[in-house]
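Quick one:
INPUT:
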């Protein structure tokens, strides 16, 4: 009975997934808008430090035990893997790699979740619908962006961009590893406290890179466009505080493979936003990719909707 009392409501889970799916699907666009006014390391430092401080203020106002030593260390390690390495690589490579290409390479994250989640190997590898769903989902993302990838391949700088692409794969692995570390090693019961220290650790980690690259020397905040400031505000409030907190909470209450489906749905949201707000066109091939991706998410969650087989007891 105690386990049931800790089971989150279906509504809360649905809202958290919707937040991660929709908000993170829009952050690729807003990162590029913010980079038009802010250098990459400064953007990471400012975004995550301010978001972490706001989260700390909220946690303290709610009477949370924020300064718990045993909770800070695992949260800081998670923040470095997720936000500094994983998200930091995305910020850096989006200076010169097409966002469509970055989205495809980031979508390999669910596969890394399966490979790195050793405690769940027996369960995950025995669940055929999950494995097939993950593979089909990745194929759907590739299909969704295939036309843009082919169009952008000719403009790539071979040595620099191959290195950047390898970094994105490494960042995807770091994100999956950090997520699993948070799921199994986190000692804080509060998702807001976890998020606070994860973001503060990442924000502080970005500072040396910003200083070494001389970003502060050439930065004039007064000349930054309103558009870039608004994009940064969106990333702080919605991308970090709302969506990241929802993600951290979902990792505690849902299977990691299911949570990782955000990496397939985010590109779908990004494309739909482009159609409705940037008046971009969509091809039959892209529509096919969208349908395949949504089908893969259904497959990954299929076991949840199956009714358990009745247990037949033998009479002796």
């Amino acid at each position: 009975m105690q386990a049931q009392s800790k089971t989150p409501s279906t509504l809360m889970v649905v809202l958290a997934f919707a937040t991660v799916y929709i908000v993170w699907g829009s952050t690729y666009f807003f990162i590029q808008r913010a980079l038009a006014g802010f250098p990459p390391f400064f953007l990471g430092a400012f975004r995550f430090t301010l978001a972490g401080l706001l989260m700390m203020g909220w946690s303290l106002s709610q009477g949370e035990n924020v300064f718990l030593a045993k909770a800070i260390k695992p949260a800081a390690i998670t923040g470095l893997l997720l936000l500094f390495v994983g998200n930091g690589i995305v910020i850096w490579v989006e200076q010169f790699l097409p966002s469509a290409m970055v989205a495809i390479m980031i979508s390999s994250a669910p596969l890394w979740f399966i490979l790195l989640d050793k405690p769940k190997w027996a369960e995950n590898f025995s669940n055929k619908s999950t494995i097939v769903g993950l593979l089909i989902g990745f194929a759907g993302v590739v299909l969704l962006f295939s036309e843009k990838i082919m169009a952008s391949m000719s403009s790539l700088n071979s040595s620099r961009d191959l290195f950047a692409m390898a970094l994105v794969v490494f960042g995807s692995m770091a994100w999956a590893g950090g997520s699993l570390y948070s799921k199994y090693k986190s000692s804080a019961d509060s998702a807001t406290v976890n998020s606070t220290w994860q973001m503060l650790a990442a924000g502080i980690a970005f500072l040396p890179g910003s200083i070494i690259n001389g970003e502060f020397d050439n930065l004039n905040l007064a000349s930054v466009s309103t558009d870039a400031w608004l994009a940064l505000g969106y990333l702080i409030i919605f991308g970090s505080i709302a969506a990241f907190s929802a993600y951290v909470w979902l990792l505690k209450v849902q299977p990691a493979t299911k949570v990782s489906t955000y990496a397939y749905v985010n590109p779908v949201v990004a494309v739909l936003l482009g159609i409705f707000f940037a008046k971009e066109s969509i091809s039959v091939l892209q529509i096919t990719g969208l349908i395949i991706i949504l089908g893969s998410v259904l497959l990954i969650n299929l076991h949840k909707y199956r009714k358990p087989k009745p247990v037949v007891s033998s009479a002796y």
